[in-house]
Amino acid sequence: MTISPWIATWAGLVPAGAAVLDLAAGNGRHTRFFAERGHPVTAIDRDVSGLVAADTVEVIAADLEDGSPWPLAGRTFGAVVVTNYLHRPLFPHLFAALQPGGVLLYETFMVGNERFGKPSNPDFLLKDGELLELVRGRFSVIAYEARMISEPKMAMVQRIAARLSS
Questions:
Q1: Per the structure, how many domains does the chain have?
Q2: Are 116 and 77 in contact (CB under 8 A)?
Q3: What is the mean pLDDT of the chain?
Q4: Is residue 30 helix, strand or coil?
Q5: 2 to each of 28, 29, 62, 151, how far by Cα in Å?
Q6: Which of 10, 104, 135, 157 lies at a C-alpha separation of 20 to 30 Å from 77?
Q7: Phi, psi of 9 (to 5 degrees)
Q8: Can you tell me the mean pLDDT for 89-106?
Q9: Which domain holds residue 27?
Q10: What percent of the chain has pLDDT above 70?
């Protein structure tokens, strides 16, 4: 699977050599992308079978939705990357995991996606403008989109690239 064009476009915001957290990393497409760019990466997912640990890649198996404590307490990163995943209770942890000036690259499905298939449960769909509201007053928004896409399939998505205020 290819990397997200949104992530590829805004990856240059991540400072050279900064540690990256790839949350809900899946098969590791963004983990590999950032590792190849010289970033140490921590990849976390419930199913880590598609992830390979390496000198610059730390793989953590964790169910982020089962009520267990946040597995990265006290750790910070120069960037947090999340695609195609939404579990609202994690937002405070994600924001706390960013170093001052750190970059949030987030892209997932929004309301309206139910017309195109899964996810269709409102619990897994961002509300209109939700990402902007979440970062308001804490982040400088570099780029934001809320739109329909046709690749890799028809979907309604929200995307944000934002820098945590120093």
A1: 1
A2: no
A3: 95
A4: helix
A5: 10, 7, 24, 11
A6: 157
A7: -65, -40
A8: 96
A9: 5-164
A10: 99
